[in-house]
Amino acid sequence: MELKDILGIWRCINEGITIDFNIRMFDPKHGKGRSLFTIYGTDAKGNKVWYEWQGAVVDLISNPDTTFTIQIDNINYTEDKPEYQSLKVWMLLENSIILELANGDRVEFQKLK
Length: 113
Prior knowledge:
Layout: E1 8-14, E2 17-27, E3 32-42, E4 48-62, E5 68-77, H1 82-85, E6 87-92, E7 96-100, E8 106-111
Antiparallel strand pairs: 1-2, 1-8, 2-3, 3-4, 4-5, 5-6, 6-7, 7-8
């Protein structure tokens, strides 16, 4: 799997919470993709949720368990939440991607664009 394989806008909606993972562009000269990860909405208890990071996705690192770690440089975030800053591609299909969060949760996203 290569970085260009995961380019696009990916969205997951679950119980009023939306998660967008956007790798907006790919710079082949430097091998980087600009990215944005945003969680927003209202949870089941009525609490407003908003979290975001921006960074440069520079590599997909192959792991022995057949996942790919998404290496992110220059990450800036609204608050430090490592479970959303350390991501692995668990599975990639034509129009969906399953990401594994640092806490082990797997989240399925649909490709919007």
